[in-house]
Amino acid sequence: MRAPAFKQAIRALIVLVLAAAGLGLGSSTASAAPVTINLCAKGGTVTLPGPVSVPIWGFGVPTTPGDCTTATASAPGPVLAVNEGDTVTISVTNALPAGHTLAFEIPGVDFTAGPTDAAVGATVTRSFTASRPGTYLYQSGGGAGRQAAMGLHGALIVRPLTANQAYDTATTAYNVEALLVLSTIDPGFNAAPDSFDMHSYRATYWLINGHAYPDTAPITASPGQRVLLRYLNAGYDNTTMLLLGMHERVVARDARLLNNPFDANAETIPSALRRTRSRPFHRVRRRAHTASRCTTGSSTSRTDRRPGRARPRRRVAAC
Predict the structure, then answer these.
(1) Number of Cβ atoms within 10 Å of the Cβ of 228
(2) What is the rounded average pLDDT for all residues in the chain?
(3) What 3 state SS string does the chain have?
(4) Cα separation of 164 and 89, whole Å?
(5) If you placed Cys at 154, which of 69, 77, 166, 195 could pair as Cys (CB 3.0 to 4.6 Å)?
(6) pLDDT, tens digit (0-9, with 9 covering 90-100), for 132-149
(7) C-alpha to C-alpha distances, 196 to 135, 187, 189, nearest whole angstrom
(8) 38: which strand partners?
(9) Residue 313, Cα to own-chain centre: how many angstroms?
(10) Which tens digits make up the pLDDT trace of 151-201?
């Protein structure tokens, strides 16, 4: 009787849960305010299936602002969430190895004029007004893309003033949201980021929120709800995302609402590292059905246009 149970489960509404998002339900409104964020850019490690320990450079939040010994690097970096209208000040301290100047940027965000770079041991402060809701990729543009490839990237979410909407329109209302930051790792590059020939870059790990299958966080589903998927692709591979047996509605790209939203079975998110700016996708998914069993039958697939590359899949759990 496993097959019928599987089919029933994947017809249910998929509800994606990301603990880091921490968003509650309700119809309350937020108010604009000054927001100060402190980050450190430093070295660290991640443990991948095998297990394999791989060095990274990542962002972390210091317990004491400016003291990077109190921060832990992660890839992707911490999720930054602000409200529409907030005046945001981000200070980033560079604790990378000697000789690596940090260049902090958020494609699509208009910063107040000022310094953009920080030498090792220095701090750069950048400010902007969060004038447009959406999902953005913050990163270091230093090292001609090498720093971002090492893990110096993360997500910034600008929320509209009305809770549980992706944008300032009721058509983007949702019950639950999920942020999926996609990335890749070539352990050979991470072991020698300064000397590695990027023409030889070959990803062997494909990550969702910093984890490779089977260590990816489970995705839960509940009938009758509406879910918002926020995608950011910080890797080198173009990535096609899908959930088998489901349909989705693409409502925005590049943190901008589409004039003509459309339904899709799957969507390819281009690589941010192969473009001059990132391309986040927002999707609102609806499906009316009832089911309560869990399954691990849904999956996503990666595509790479380079000759001879395989298309590995990453499986996620749904219920």
Answers:
(1) 25
(2) 79
(3) CHHHHHHHHHCCCECCCCCCCCCCCCCCECCCCEEEEEEEEEEEEEEECCCEEEEEEEEECCCCCCCHHHCCCECCCCCEEEECCCEEEEEEEEECCCCCCEEEECCCCCCCCCCCEECCCCEEEEEEECCCCEEEEEEECHHHHHHHHCCCEEEEEEECCECCECCCCHHHECCEEEEEEEEEECHHHHHCCCCCCHHHCCCCEEEECCECCCCCCCCCECCCCCEEEEEEECCCCCEEEECCCCCEEEEEECCEEEEEEEEECEEEECCHHHCCCCCCEEEEECCCCCCCCCECCCEEEECCCCCCCCCCEEECCEC
(4) 25
(5) 77
(6) 999 999 999 999 999 999
(7) 31, 11, 6
(8) 91
(9) 18
(10) 999 999 999 999 999 999 999 999 888 999 999 999 999 999 999 999 999
Joined together, the tokens standing for residue 298 give 């849904």
Task: Quote the CA–CA distance of 65 and 189 in Å, as a whole number.
Answer: 31
**Tokens standing for residue 112:** 């107040």
Between 125 and 238, the higher pLDDT residue: 125
- Closest to 220 (Cα-Cα) out of 155, 317, 128, 110: 317
pLDDT on residue 211? 95
Tokens 């998110």 belong to which residue?
269
Handedness of CA 197, 201, 207, 208 (dihedral sign): positive
CA distance between the termini of the chain:
17
Residue listed under structure tokens 């998927």: 229
What pLDDT digit, counting tens, does each position of 10-35 carry? 222 222 222 233 333 334 566 779 99
User: 218: pLDDT confidence band, cut at 50, 70 and 90?
Assistant: confident
Query: How far apart, in Å, are the Cα atoms of 201 and each of 45, 53, 108, 186, 278?
Result: 19, 18, 27, 7, 20
